[in-house]
Amino acid sequence: MSDAPPPSPTSPKSGAEAVKIHHRLHPTLGARSDASSAPPAKRSKEYEDAPFREGFVAVRSTKPAAGDYADLALAIIIRACREYSARIAGLYMLPASGVQAQWAQECFRNACGVAKRQYAYTDRIGKIVRARGSQVRGKTIETFRALFAGNYGLERSSSSKIIAANKRKVAQLLQNSAFHYKDPAANPLVGFAENRIIAQVRKATTFRTKESVGIVFPNYFNPISLGNIAMELIAEWSTGSFIASKFTEKAVVDSYEKYVKDVEKWSAMKPTVVENIRKKWYWRASETLTSEVINDNESSINDAQEEALRAELEGRTGAA
């Protein structure tokens, strides 16, 4: 279903440690990449610049957008943005800046290959592609927030009694990272990373339709990577009342990496068994798309259309 080439063995760090961490996070992908290395691409400066759409003049102070470009270049950039989104959602939510830059360039070159038309990779195009990372993270956070209180039995209230009850629940959920287990109240805890909210968020963000990145780019999701299951927002309820925190990479990176270490440790206990569990999660998320009953109240805009519309709006001010 996917025509995207296997990703390079990149990771949230750089150098030799990067490859090592990547193999731990997604060993199957790493093995496929090493076995199918392609010859190095021509230097980007040997390609012509992607043409702008008719009448567009780039202004240095203006934020670059995919919609600034002519049709073929626009399609290539959107394809690159979608693959980059898949890497962020499927491999690692918070890669270091150097890895972001490398992924963006690789995704653009892959998209050029799919289109059979090569354009130069520029800083301007790189900014457009990398911007999709914050959008993926933002969408994930919004989905978690919408489901969070109902899933864990937390209530929004000014009542001191309810606030105290919320605070106790949050303390219990944080103890031994119980919040991501299938039943956070069980003793002993079982079902590591199988709390239903994780599958619900995965479904809503990356397996929503047949055009979603989890389906179009299965190499990044099958099996579900260890980095993919490590996000959490429990701290927003730590006082007993909901206080929405501003999501920034700097604010959550330590928490995220802590839970990545947890899932790495879990995986190392029985690697083959855990990999099979992660494959099961992928198939559960993807196979239901063929048997779902369509809800007529849902938006008719699919994921691919959403990307095109976003690109169009980014190039407009609304004044004309």
Q: What is the topological layout?
A:
Elements: H1 15-25, H2 27-35, H3 71-90, H4 97-115, H5 123-152, H6 160-174, H7 196-206, H8 213-216, H9 249-269, H10 271-287, H11 303-314
Q: Can you characterise this structure?
A:
Residues 1-46 are annotated as: Disordered. InterPro entries: DUF6532. This is DUF6532 domain-containing protein. With 320 residues, the chain is mainly alpha-helical. Helix content is 53%, strand content 0%. It has 2 domains: 15-134 and 305-314, no CATH class; 137-295, no CATH class. It is built from 11 helices and no strands. Helix 3 packs across helix 5 (123-152), helix 4 crosses helix 5 and helix 5 packs antiparallel against helix 7. Residues 1-42, 290-300 and 316-320 have low confidence and may be disordered.
Brief write-up:
The protein is mainly α and 320 residues long. The chain has eleven helices and no strands. Residues 1-46 are annotated as: Disordered.
Any descriptors?
DUF6532, 11 helices, globular, mainly alpha, disordered C terminus, 320 residues, disordered N terminus, DUF6532 domain-containing protein
Helix vs. strand class? mainly alpha
| Main sheet summary | none
Radius of gyration: 21 Å
* H/E element sequence: HHHHHHHHHHH
Helix content: 40-55%
